[in-house]
């Protein structure tokens, strides 16, 4: 079966992390096992890189369908006897495991079994996260430090209109845009209509002033122009931007350098690394006052010394 046929059959993995452990191996991995084996029929494919770093599709074989190579026990023993390093390379430098498949060779730590290699990777990611946390604390303190541009915490709370019969989400009817100062005082709290006055689901307050959102948007933009604005993330404001544009209203945020996203700052401060090595997305505070509270929490964090927390080498 060709690689193309294998991929078409559905036995395909997008990345090595998706390949079940202990089930599949490449032909090279089979040959370099402690007791070498030869592959059976091709069983799957995985996207990866070849020896010079080019993206390619790699053929995998089931380990349980492989067969011993022609090497005898005497031949295997002779190879090991010729090189002390060959024996040492089969042993994990961290835990002493002697896996069937050849350990992963690293420059810093020597040969590692997959579990120890994964642990080392996680520790490195945690060390990176620790450095990011220290930077996040400093950023939060800078945002709350009195300066020429006071802080404004902005959150848009949408009035949703459900979905169309075909399942498409309707654009929001209106948005309550709350802006808090760094002491928690409400600086602005307008309700802006984001759809035509003929649309359904518009809250009564958004129809004030003949239903025109432009004057309120202009006043909000003027107020924000003097502030350093903290938002959760820009994509949360896409519905607001599209709605104001559709009604011919001005965009409310100041220039990019005066707008900061709280989501990324919180990710760095929470300093969490999942077992698969990723940084989880934090849960949104959902309210402007809770976002301000979270910012103060970050700023008040005692600066723990940046790691090392890695396994001793």
What does this protein look like?
The chain has 313 residues and is an alpha+beta fold. It folds into two domains: 3-82, no CATH class; 132-161 and 170-299, 2-Layer Sandwich (Nucleotidyltransferase, domain 5). Helix content is 32%, strand content 19%. The strands form four sheets. Strands 9, 10, 11, 12, 13 and 14 form a six-stranded mixed sheet that branches. A hairpin with a 4-residue loop joins strand 10 (174-181) and strand 11. It is elongated. The two termini are 45 Å apart.
Give the domain tally: 2
**Count of extended strands:** 14
Mean pLDDT: 87
Name of the CATH architecture of the largest domain: 2-Layer Sandwich
Shape category? elongated
User: What is the CATH class designation of the largest domain?
Assistant: Alpha Beta
Low-confidence stretches: 304-313
Radius of gyration over alpha carbons? Answer: 29 Å
Residue share in β-strands: 15-25%
Structural class: alpha+beta
Q: Please give the alpha-carbon distance between the first and last residues.
A: 45 Å
CATH topology of the largest domain, by name, is Nucleotidyltransferase, domain 5
- H/E element string? HEEHEEEEHHEEHEEEEHEHEHH
Largest sheet: 6 strands, mixed
Helix content: 25-40%
- Give the number of helices: 9
């Amino acid at each position: 079966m060709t690689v193309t046929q294998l991929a078409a059959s559905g036995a395909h993995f997008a990345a090595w992390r998706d390949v079940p452990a202990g089930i599949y191996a490449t032909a090279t991995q089979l040959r370099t096992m402690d007791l070498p084996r030869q592959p059976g029929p091709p069983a799957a494919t995985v996207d990866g890189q070849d020896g010079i770093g080019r993206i390619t599709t790699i053929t995998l074989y089931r380990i349980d369908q492989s067969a011993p190579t022609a090497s005898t026990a005497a031949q295997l023993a002779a190879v090991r006897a010729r090189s002390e390093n060959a024996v040492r390379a089969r042993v994990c430098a961290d835990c002493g495991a002697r896996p069937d498949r050849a350990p992963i060779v690293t420059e810093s730590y020597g040969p590692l079994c997959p579990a120890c290699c994964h642990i080392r990777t996680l520790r490195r990611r945690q060390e990176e996260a620790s450095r990011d946390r220290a930077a996040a604390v400093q950023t939060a303190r800078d945002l709350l430090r009195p300066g020429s541009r006071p802080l404004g915490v902005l959150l848009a709370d949408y009035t949703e209109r459900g979905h169309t019969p075909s399942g498409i989400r309707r654009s929001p009817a209106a948005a309550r845009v709350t802006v808090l100062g760094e002491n928690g005082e409400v600086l602005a709290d307008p309700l802006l209509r984001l759809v035509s006055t003929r649309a359904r689901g518009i809250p009564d307050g958004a129809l004030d002033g003949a239903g025109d959102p432009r004057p309120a948007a202009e006043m909000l933009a003027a107020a924000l122009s003097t502030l350093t604005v903290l938002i959760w993330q820009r994509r949360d404001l896409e519905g607001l931007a599209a709605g104001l544009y559709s009604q011919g209203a001005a965009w409310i945020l100041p220039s990019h350098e005066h707008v900061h996203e709280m989501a990324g700052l919180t990710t760095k401060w929470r300093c969490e690394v999942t077992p698969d090595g990723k940084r989880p997305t934090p849960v949104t505070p959902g309210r402007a006052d809770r976002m301000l509270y979270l910012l103060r929490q970050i700023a008040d964090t005692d600066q723990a010394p940046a790691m090392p927390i890695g396994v001793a080498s």
